Amino acid sequence: MRPRTLVVRPRTLVVRPRTLVPNVCDRLRPMNRSSPLSAFLSVPLISLVRRNHALEHATMHLLSKRQGNLRLVGRSSPWGFYIYGDVPTESVLKASQDGLRRLKAGHREMAIHPNCGSNLAVAGILAGLGAFLALGGLTADRSKSRLDRLARLPLAFSAATLGIVLAQPLGRVLQARVTTQPDVGDLRIVDVTRETKAGITVHHVHTEG
């Protein structure tokens, strides 16, 4: 039995005048356009994923604000983004429309989300690296007793905790600089489809631009 798919097509979006809101995106200096990283991020396919990622975050912000206690997971692609979780299709469509309108109006902070996987990746890397260095890193003296190594555990825990604390601001910078593109340009929503996979509700917001 094939899963049922519901398709919802949006109405015309209305773009309001640009209003800038101070946030981490605005405080960062523009990236050097001649740098290899900038050139890579400007590749059309990569740029499209970053813009869809920004719209995904904006949509998640609005859904969380309007629907209350939701447990959702998002994933972006060159063709739009997916939202995994039980939420009405009409709510997804409305939130994605409003999110797109706000991004185009200059609300760049909507592209940054505290629960983004970028933050988790940075936290894991910094915590692991801090603990590794606190325990001696590659230069650790293997002749030391197990008790001596255990005595360094509090320092390792402290280093890992510091890494997690630093991951929040660094993760937001990574999102603003690399994984999202708040300037969504001519991005538009084509439709929203809903289906159920393995008992999980999945919405796919199709985009073009």
What's the main sheet like? 5 strands, antiparallel
In total, how many beta strands? 5
**CATH level-four homologous superfamily name of the largest domain:** Threonyl-trna Synthetase, Chain A, domain 2
Q: Count every helix, treating DSSP H or I runs of 4 or more residues as helices.
A: 7
Name the poorly predicted regions.
12-22
Cα distance spanning the termini: 34 Å
Walk me through the structure:
The chain contains 7 helices and 5 strands; from the N terminus they run βαααββααααββ. A hairpin with a 2-residue loop joins β2 and β3. The chain has 209 residues and is of the alpha+beta class. The protein folds into 2 domains: 6-15 and 37-112 and 180-208, Threonyl-trna Synthetase, Chain A, domain 2 (Threonyl-tRNA Synthetase, Chain A, domain 2, 2-Layer Sandwich); 117-171, no CATH class. It has a 5-stranded antiparallel beta sheet with strand order 1-4-5-3-2, covered by helices on one side.
List the helices and strands and how they pair.
Elements: E1 6-8, H1 24-27, H2 36-41, H3 44-67, E2 73-77, E3 80-84, H4 89-104, H5 117-134, H6 146-151, H7 153-179, E4 188-197, E5 200-208
Antiparallel strand pairs: 1-4, 2-3, 3-5, 4-5
Helix pairs in contact: 3-4, 5-7
Keywords:
209 residues, alpha+beta, Threonyl-tRNA Synthetase, Chain A, domain 2, 2 domains, five-stranded antiparallel beta sheet, 5 strands, 48% helix, globular
What is the structure about, briefly put?
With 209 residues, the protein is α+β, with helices and mostly antiparallel strands. 48% of the residues lie in helices and 15% in strands.
